[in-house]
Amino acid sequence: MNLNESKLVLEIEALKNSFIKTTDKLIKDVKRQDKIMLRSDKRQQKEYDELQIKLQEVEELKKEIEATQREVVFTMGSIGESRSKETGFHVKRVAEYTYILAKYYGLPEEECEMLKQASPMHDIGKVAIPDIVLNKPGRFNDEERLIMDTHAQLGYDMLKYSQRKLIKMAATVAYEHHEKYNGKGYPNQIAGEDIHIYGRITALADVFDALGSTRVYKDAWDDEKIFKMFKEERGEHFDPKLIDIFFEHLDEFLLVRDMMKDIQV
Amino acid sequence: MENIKLPATQYTPEIILDVNGTISLVGKSYPENTFEFYKLMMNWLEEYFENFVAEITTVNMEIIYFNSSSSKLFFDFFDLLEENSTENKIVINWIYDEENETAEEAGEDFIEDFESLKINLVTK
Lengths: 265, 124
Hints:
The complex is a heterodimer. Chain A is an all-alpha fold. Chain A has 10 helices and no strands. Chain A is rod-shaped and about 135 Å long. Chain B is α/β, with parallel strands linked by helices. The termini of chain B are far apart. In chain B, strands 1-2-3-4-5-6 form a 6-stranded mixed beta sheet, with helices on one face. Chain B has one domain: 2-Layer Sandwich (Transcription Regulator spoIIAA). Chains A and B meet through α1 of A and α2 and α3 of B.
């Protein structure tokens, strides 16, 4: 072998080594690539599974919170009811009436649904009215009437600090459900659309149900008498728009009344 | 050679590259263009090991989430560390939250693949 030949061989040997090194690296990379993909797939599968579980937990918590809120609100409504002279399904019917009124007034569905849940709390302030006044049989004298009337303010004061939308709404309902459209209601004698729509709606729903129900101290008014009074109070006690809605959709109100009748003892 | 400190973003970890020998990656890694994003770090490291290497290089990795291309990038990163580990002292801490099993397993995988590197599993 001459010198040139051996130099050439050396160069080829070097090339061969470098080629082997490069192919080794390529093989390593290819194998590694598979490994990376395999591991990544496994990892991502696990992570996505965990994510789904977490999401499901959040969903369930959300439902739980909403249900708890509904229950609290409903329980508070019942407490208010137990302290008032209304009985049986009064708050449930008021809830349904407020929903119908809100819907035809044009409030968004979500708000109608919320008002249906919040309106049963309208009398919650009565929990703070002394028994001697609250349970008095027969009519109140002026002084007792003044005490009774504080239940609107009292209810508002109980609920007003809440940050929850539903409870805030209930605070407004409690505060303004005895205001009258002509400004002769209480506690603030506000008038017209200065009374929040939630207050105006609940006022009508509450009165409609109270008049049509039998109480120990009074008979149920017959429908003709109620309708006559509602027509007279259009724009006086009640928002004229709501009275119009009431008569336009009377069948729906009467259906609710029929389906949620108090059980007569 | 300048130190580099990149703040974490929604998709990328905080990166600290200090000539005193501290390299740290903390956060999530799922950038849109992984190799582009880590180019700065990889270039810095090459220059560091060539010209400025400290007596001990400590690598702290606390990656809570990473995508497939980041995984590939980390392999390249560990390759680079491995190439330089014969002449330099390099300590790698793979830091993870006890509850993050995925991160723990990833750390174990790296230990298995890079036998010559000193990788410590460190729980937070």
